[in-house]
Design brief:
8-stranded mixed sheet
Length: 233
């Protein structure tokens, strides 16, 4: 979720030399929210950026120094917001990307925003590959990002860590979507990448989540879905 409050302090750090993470702490819950920024000579990409105008004002110089934001990618409809989509367009003529399967799930204030459907094949944004992962939402999309010889999965809230670091959860809204979620977990299980970059974490589970924890994370997410909907293994 990229809905950040203006009074939450934001800091920026390197994941790699060309991949930065913006992070802010929810003062009430202690959850740490993240947005990522990949720089490339053929165009920079922001992943699920905040909806706070204060954020874009504070970091306007940062983005200008890096050449602006050419692409703004979302994993699913709930990450979008009117200011979060429109401000980058106003400032840098940014293109917003969201799976067309999630268009029906946009909030009313975002339905007039122009989105393009991410390309799953052919030439697209350099160093980024779309990975359809339906389950949390019909059009949920993860993004494999190549950076500094490593590969990261921008995973949104495909799987999140439980409160206080207790277990892992795969948020699935309905039983109808549970089979898609379990299939998507298997898709991620087959992917080769170095670490997860989720949209939220807690201090007990700092990002990146390394591949050494991949099976623990995915098994925890799968178990959560099966318990929630009483699905036998």
């Amino acid at each position: 979720m990229a809905h950040w409050k203006p009074n939450w302090p934001v800091e920026v750090n390197h994941v790699e030399s060309d991949l930065d993470v913006f992070s802010t702490v929810n003062i009430k819950s202690g959850r740490i929210y993240h947005s990522y920024f990949l720089t490339h000579k053929r165009g920079n990409t922001l992943f699920h950026g905040p909806d706070s105008r204060a954020f874009y004002d504070e970091f306007s110089g940062f983005f200008e120094d890096h050449g602006g934001i050419q692409n703004h990618l979302f994993t699913h409809a709930p990450e979008t917001s009117k200011p979060g989509c429109e401000i980058p367009v106003e400032k840098w003529n940014t293109t917003n990307w969201l799976s067309e399967l999630d268009y029906p799930h946009l909030r009313k204030d975002v339905r007039e925003v122009q989105f393009r459907n991410p390309k799953s094949s052919g030439r697209w944004i350099p160093n980024i590959k779309c990975i359809p992962l339906p389950g949390h939402m019909p059009g949920f999309t993860g993004y494999l990002v190549k950076s500094a010889g490593k590969s990261y999965l921008i995973s949104g809230d495909f799987v999140i860590v439980g409160a206080g670091g207790r277990g892992w959860r795969a948020p699935v809204p309905t039983e109808r979507m549970s089979s898609y979620a379990l299939s998507s977990i298997e898709t991620v299980r087959e992917l080769k990448f170095d670490a997860f970059l989720p949209n939220q974490s807690i201090k007990e589970r700092p990002i990146p989540w390394p591949r050494e924890r991949k099976e623990e994370i995915l098994n925890g997410g799968e178990s959560f879905v099966r318990r929630k909907f009483r699905i036998k293994a």
